[in-house]
Amino acid sequence: MDNSICQAYEEIQSLEEEIKILTEKYDDNQQESTFFSDKEILMSIKSFQREFQGESKGHESPSDLKAQLESLEREISFLMKFTGIQFTSHSKKTVEKTRNKTVQKHRVSGNCHSLSFQLEFQLLEVQNKENVSAVITDLSIIMESGEHSVMSKFVSSTEERGNLLTFFRSLSSYAEWYEHRRCTFLHFK
Length: 189
Fold this sequence. Notes:
alpha+beta, 2 domains, 4 strands, 5 helices, 189 residues
């Protein structure tokens, strides 16, 4: 009798854990859905409905998906060559979530030409009736500061303003010219 009670208790605990995991996944999916338009969400819903009803109409074949993946890889490669920015890792953690406000902590690392960088910031999203506004807070930029004292001043001012677009534009330009200067000096050595 006691053994069956223990087994039932363990099964209840495992089910509670599974419910907790599924709830977290659901919350993440709900949170991610705010990034998509209503049209994209409706198209996804229709696609899932067809999948669960067993209809095969409208599904893309594996060769189509492979072609799309190759196309996306070419686009990413082009953007990396064009900007010199390559992201090596990204992590996202939801810190706070309410009905109309979400705070996420992001950590991004990568390199631009030969300069490496790491960013940490919080993204505050506030949802009104019509739209979603996002603000970057608590921006922290970590870069090697050895011979880049000019860049370190710029990094400090960028952290105060919280403007990532300016940071990436300036980093791309600076790193490209830094690479040109380095190659020129190597040529004269």
